[in-house]
Write a structure and sequence with these properties.
By secondary structure, this protein is α+β, with helices and mostly antiparallel strands. The chain has 21 helices and 29 strands.
């Protein structure tokens, strides 16, 4: 978050140590209490889900990359001077942001070294609690370049630390967390009337859904009635997303809201729905996403917001913080509602936007990403906010450091939300990636399920079940999501076809299960297209958007101009092959004929670059000579279809690769006729 930009946006917006003893989750371990609606799906303890295959590789790259080493790479903020370690340095959000990704990564990998890095942050937070219930930094300091040393008592950073402490409790059952939260929430209930959420800054008012979610989580542990009173107060003081979505035009107007506030905050109506299950909250969320797609949507699952909401031109930016916060919002929405659309949206961002916005070694990232991104350089662009022109460059601190701190939660929380326990004492696989889960079903009986797949590139997913007691059959439901993009899925049990199912639903297999049972899910993927800004077209298959493969020349930059603000070094990437292609307007019934799929002979555990892309699509296209670089980015995209649009005489074959495997790309193409 750019605090220099705060005024502008405001006006626009009006004990236990080490690994816990492993134990499976019981579906009845923490059911929602009577004052709260029972959600269909229940999050599993941290560590119950183990990533495998390419997803494990992503987590390991985070460990060896910036996530596991940010204290060394960014010591001015993440070192001992940090206010969340008791120091006089950065007092605000950045330290908690980092640990909000580092801690789940550490416990999912069961990595003692990473766990040890989280301990000082957790322990200091617990021990910082005051007699009145307040916890966290308490003193503001004078300005120092590169640090955020004021607003130490702001409500907002505590919301991030509360998320961390909830995850820590999930992994360790450290009862001190319950005590801390109980006392802090009593403090909030006492102080919020006089010092409301926006007393220190406006961020907490927009992001209060995260605060509210932890209040309900604690209520399910303690049943303290004052928590329900606090929940109503937080809801009353938070930004009214419900009416903004249902009745307002906020999502139709440029600059109406900060994009991260939107992505992170829009979960609030659904979180509050747990205490007040009124249809208006569900409807508001659906309307919000519909308008977000219509007026601001991109083919990668994201929307224009650089930093404020900025429409659907594919050269507008989307912030990395926005991506990871939107993923967490969708994970929250999925658990509360069981709505397939939220899982589909989650996969769209995870398999397209997220891998493309960080470097292969997870040491650098982009602040903004473009859906049509043909050149990355230090250059001022038509963004709502510019940070000395470095927003597209791959660097540790290029753009703005909030994303340096906050990018780490994306993949660990994605892994944590692959599987759920269910309200009907079963298990649910609602988002797909190679993994293994241990939990308890039925009457607290332990099972393990191994998920083998190369999804999202592969159409088949294999689930192998094993029971703690090999001889006993256990009766429970197994929930499987059928994505909306899938026309007809097939479910097999032990090799025999069980059923076919249309897309956009959750299938429940309710039967006796025994060790050795195998469930196979086939999700046939077909090529389809969607229409975007200026009638541009995207080419999609399954959850993946395919983008033009563009040759890359990486140009390392040693930054002597402003290293404190934008880092000592970053990479520019320039195109070495043509990018200004238009596609032919192909009818839907000819897409398979005109777009030829080629699968790589050998696949690796890291599919997210041009060299390792497991699938490519070949098709015919024509260059559009008038579509040129403008201000070191793609110029205005030609309208589809422009009357008498001048194109090159020759037709060329182009290659499309997964969006997540690109750094330069066209993912929304103009059309050049039939």
């Amino acid at each position: 978050m750019n605090l220099k930009h705060l005024l502008k946006i405001a006006l626009l917006c009006v004990a236990t140590t080490g690994l816990a003893q492993e134990k499976p989750h019981s579906a009845g371990l923490a059911p929602q209490k009577s004052a709260l609606r029972q959600n269909p799906y229940i999050e599993l303890p941290l560590g119950a889900i183990k990533a495998e295959g390419w997803l494990k590789e992503m987590l390991l790259r985070q460990k060896t990359g910036a996530t596991g080493n940010l204290d060394k790479l960014y010591p001015s903020v993440m070192g001992q001077r940090n206010g969340w370690l008791g120091g006089d340095g950065d007092q605000w959000e950045r330290g908690p942001y980092w640990v909000d990704g580092l801690l789940p990564l550490a416990y999912i990998l069961k990595d003692k070294e990473l766990i040890a890095k989280t301990k000082p942050w957790v322990e200091w937070a617990i021990k910082s609690q005051q007699p009145d219930g307040y916890f966290g930094p308490i003193k503001d300091y004078s300005y120092e370049a590169g640090l955020q040393r004021d607003n130490s008592r702001d409500w907002w950073p505590k919301m991030v630390m509360l998320k961390i402490l909830k995850q820590y409790y999930s992994a360790t059952n450290d009862k001190r967390i319950i005590t801390l939260m109980t006392n802090y929430f009593k403090y909030q209930l006492k102080e919020l009337p006089a010092k409301p959420l926006d007393h220190w800054s406006f961020w907490a008012r927009y992001r209060a859904g995260d605060n509210l979610a932890i209040v309900y989580w604690l209520y399910n542990k303690t049943q303290d009635q004052f928590l329900l009173e606090l929940a109503d107060l937080i809801h009353k003081q938070s930004f009214d997303f419900t009416n903004a979505f249902a009745d307002g035009d906020m999502l139709t107007r440029f600059g109406s809201i900060h994009a991260v506030n939107l992505a992170q905050g829009m979960k609030e109506p659904l979180v509050y729905y747990q205490q007040h299950p009124e249809q208006k909250y569900l409807n508001a969320m659906k309307k919000g996403f519909k308008d977000l797609d219509k007026y601001n949507g991109f083919a990668n699952g994201m929307f224009g917001g650089d930093e404020s909401l900025h429409g659907n031109n594919p050269t507008q930016g989307s912030e990395l913080c926005t991506a990871v916060e939107m993923m967490f919002t969708l994970e929250t929405a999925l658990e509360i509602t069981g709505d397939v659309d939220y899982a589909d949206r989650l996969e769209k961002i995870a398999f397209n936007t997220l891998p493309a916005q960080a470097s292969d070694d997870y040491m650098t990232r982009q602040y903004f990403q473009q859906a049509n991104q043909v050149m990355i350089s230090r250059q001022m662009h038509n963004f709502d906010v510019n940070h000395h022109g470095t927003d597209l460059c791959y660097g540790l601190l290029s753009g703005y450091p909030c994303c340096t701190s906050n990018m780490h939660q994306g993949w660990p929380k994605f892994a944590q939300n692959l599987w759920y326990a269910t309200a009907d004492k079963g298990v649910a696989a609602l988002v797909y990636s190679p993994s293994e889960v241990k939990l308890q079903v039925a009457n607290n009986q332990q099972i393990t399920i191994k998920e083998e797949t190369n999804y999202p590139f592969q159409e088949s997913i294999k689930f192998s079940l094993s029971m703690a007691k090999k001889s006993d059959a256990i009766h429970f439901p197994f929930h499987l999501r059928i994505p909306a993009w899938c026309n007809t899925a097939t479910v097999k049990v032990n090799g025999a076809a069980l059923q076919t199912a249309q897309g956009n639903q959750i299938v429940k297999i309710n039967r006796d299960w025994k060790s050795g049972d195998v469930v196979e899910l086939e999700l046939p993927m077909h090529i389809f297209k969607n229409t975007w800004f200026e009638n541009s077209v995207s080419v999609e298959r399954g959850p993946i958007t395919y983008a033009l493969k563009i040759g890359e020349e990486v140009k390392p930059v040693k930054n002597l101009k402003d290293p404190i603000d934008n880092g000592a070094a970053f990479d520019e990437i320039h195109p070495t092959t043509p990018w200004n292609f238009g596609l032919f307007d192909v009818p839907d019934n000819q897409l398979n004929e005109k777009f030829k799929i080629e699968k790589a002979a050998n696949t690796t555990n890291y599919p997210w670059n041009l060299e390792n892309a497991p699938i490519q699509i070949k098709t015919k296209a024509k260059r559009i000579p008038s579509w040129k670089l403008y201000n070191e980015m793609a110029g205005p995209i030609p309208y589809s279809t422009t009357y008498q649009l001048e194109t090159a005489s020759e037709t060329e074959e182009i290659i499309l690769v997964p969006f997540g495997s690109t750094r330069l790309r066209i993912s929304q193409f103009p059309l050049v006729g039939r």
